[in-house]
Design brief:
The chain has three helices and three strands, in the order βαβααβ. By secondary structure, it is an alpha+beta fold. It has one domain. It has a three-stranded mixed beta sheet with strand order 1-2-3. The model has no long low-confidence stretch (mean pLDDT about 95).
Length: about 70
């Protein structure tokens, strides 16, 4: 179980910001952005180690690996 980022999306976000700055936008005036984070649960590993994930937690997960 982890709460983190999808690195491809973070890279796309950084590329978009870099594009604006390279086209002349003031870096100091550019708004701060944070990457969207996701809850991911690996049910296969949970099963292997004997961990039962409650249904309420599974409902909150954006990514479930089976």
């Amino acid at each position: 179980m982890t709460y983190g980022f999808i690195h491809h999306e973070v890279g796309a976000q950084a590329a978009r910001i870099a594009h604006h700055i390279l086209k002349g936008a003031d870096p100091g005036g550019y708004p701060v952005e944070t990457a969207e984070s996701y809850l991911a649960i690996n049910l296969h590993v949970a099963d292997v180690i004997g961990l039962e994930i409650p249904y309420e937690i599974l409902q909150r997960a954006e990514i479930i690996i089976r």
